[in-house]
């Protein structure tokens, strides 16, 4: 439960966000003895995206034992790929287990951060007008926290319910309705089975087809759960095996590799054997290499797409009408309900915050169209400010929790230099940040993400801002190296 104590006027560390990253950060701050911290959360509790995304079928595409903290293993996961409710329960239990509720303040939306150079503190202003001051600020808002709704003419004129998958309204009636689903990616393929069973008609508006691979999901047996809980070291060995298998999959994301060619062949074969109708098969076959956009996991997607009440539209949307959708070809598609499976604001990073650093510099202006950071956690000119799941820390092949844990450990050490070490300000050197990102973008140019396809991995100018290049273990090594010369402290 969140603390009901008043907001302090001054504190050592402010963590923004109580999702997976905020929980990991809170744990590592406590481990480091940095107990004077507050977690500011805009919603009403822990969980982040798993609290927000409650649409039917919501779940994780990383195995449960791997999508969990190394310091809080869970032996009784119900299945290999857990669903939303169980994942949320896990994160809430972790927060309770490590005493993070005392540090949580809910309903707090951070609006601006301004660095006071004379004091070496961040002045923090919240949406409700309240303020505080912190020596260290750590953003844990993630890359998938702000829902994205495209600008579509007439959208506000629609007379029926309109809801984004990340703001699901379970009271909206779907049974027997004509449902228009705008978007056909990760969230869409998870909710499709249930919505297609409930709706009288389901029309899916697709901009770009996706590569689909099978999801090796099943329930764990009672014996397996007993073994995870009672055989010493078995769960960690199982988790390590899963991690290493996923590490090997990175080779499929390298342009021209044997693994990438095999993935392309198997993806085409899956479509050829899974879709009977040649016209539908053509609509669902991507014209870009697997991995350029996020590869999706599903065992029933092609089956759902061939149901009698399901129709796929690829003509594009001209406008939304009060009672339907008009396509670019002038067809009117009647609809009672609109579901926006249109993803998140991903490439902007901290899109709702005004951040003013040393010398009055704006973070938004410093970043321009392509956000960047040193090791994904710090930006030159913005002392004592750190990010979890920042630019170029996402993965296409393994668990993001592994990445976030390494960042939380790294940031906790830097925060300790400020709080315990007596530094007024600690900032990464501009030349270190430039060198790091130039090298990273060179390496990223050799991956499938650099291909010609629309993707949330990169900005409009083609800069890949989301993903790390290489193995997750390579990122751990990068953060583990001594880098004192890249930082300037006063």
From TrEMBL:
InterPro entries: FAD-bind_Monooxygenase_sf (IPR051209), FAD/NAD-bd_sf (IPR036188). GO terms for molecular function: monooxygenase activity. It is an enzyme of class 1 (oxidoreductase). Its EC number is 1.14.13.-. It comes from the Bacteria. Keywords: Monooxygenase, Oxidoreductase. This is Flavin-containing monooxygenase.
